[in-house]
Specification:
Layout (H helix, E strand, L loop, with lengths): L5 H13 L3 H5 L2 E8 L10 E3 L1 H8 L2 H4 E5 L4 E4 L5 E12 L5 E13 L2 E7 L3 H7 L10
């Protein structure tokens, strides 16, 4: 694995999210990167195109969700060395209510020249209702 491998970049991105360093996290994206949410419910974004749109979406993330850990992280290599499949949980608390946050994710991530170019985030919108999270404020919805 090289220093800029998709696995290394992804692990670094998780550390930045835990550190609540959203500007540095956004800096890991290619200018024309695309973030997709295939299971996004109506009213939620299904696709963000470009670093600026991703930055706007993530800007207030730490104001809503205080992430503490990403347990159960599994990163799978694919036949394309630029693409990985990630299984993980994000755990923490909801800032507004202090209720626990526990979300399972699967992501398909592609990296080129040490930057994210594609990130398909298969999160479960039903779990958002179960946690009672309201992330409609700020850029998350």
């Amino acid at each position: 694995m090289t220093e800029n491998s998709p696995t290394d970049l992804y692990r670094h991105s998780l550390r930045l999210l835990l550190d609540k360093d959203i500007p540095a996290w956004v800096g890991l994206w290619a200018e024309g990167g695309v973030m997709e949410f295939p299971f996004a419910p109506p009213g939620w974004p299904g696709r963000l195109e470009g670093r600026e749109a991703i930055a706007a979406y993530m800007r207030d993330y730490p104001d809503h969700i205080d992430l503490h850990d990403f347990p159960d992280l599994k990163i799978h290599q694919t036949t394309d060395p630029a693409t990985i499949v990630v299984e993980m949980r994000g755990v923490g608390r909801l800032v507004e209510t202090a209720r626990p946050f526990d979300m399972t994710y699967i992501a398909v991530v592609t990296v080129k020249d040490g930057r994210f170019t594609s990130y398909r985030d298969y999160w479960n919108p039903l779990a958002v209702n179960e946690t009672g999270v309201d992330i409609t404020k700020g850029g998350l919805r």
